[in-house]
Amino acid sequence: MSTEETLRTVDLTKIGPERYKATNARGGVLPIGGGDDPDFTPVELLLAALAGCGAIDLELIAGKRAPFTRLDARVTGHKIRDEQGSHLVDLTVTFDVAFPEGEAGDAARAVVPRTLEQIESRLCTVGRTVTLGEPVRYRGTAS
């Protein structure tokens, strides 16, 4: 089931105190920080990934019917520490979208509720991974 075709990777390099650079296979770069600078923290990146994954799916489906005149999203969650350790709870992605007036816009608006259900239940890889709870293993070497 796991093959080179299914593999996704990101490399991380330290660039300063509590600052890192993530690089994807296509050469894209994203700074990550510990929260004392404007860089996104790892938790904020997870929230952004949830919104971005859903937004792309929403655009692929509803956006085929009419172009968005607005597509905004807000992601909320509460970071807690309990007997299970540190984690996020009450994760919610809320989209605020608009389409042009007319038949195409009406068609796009009509598919939004069903599309959001599909994003939550099967389409968004990030959201599905969080929901299903895939284990993460941390490994390393030291020299």
From TrEMBL:
Gene3D superfamilies in the cross-refs: 3.30.300.20
Signal sequence, start to end: none
Pfam families hit by this protein: OsmC (PF02566)
Name the record gives this protein: OsmC family peroxiredoxin
Species assigned in the record: Nocardioides fonticola
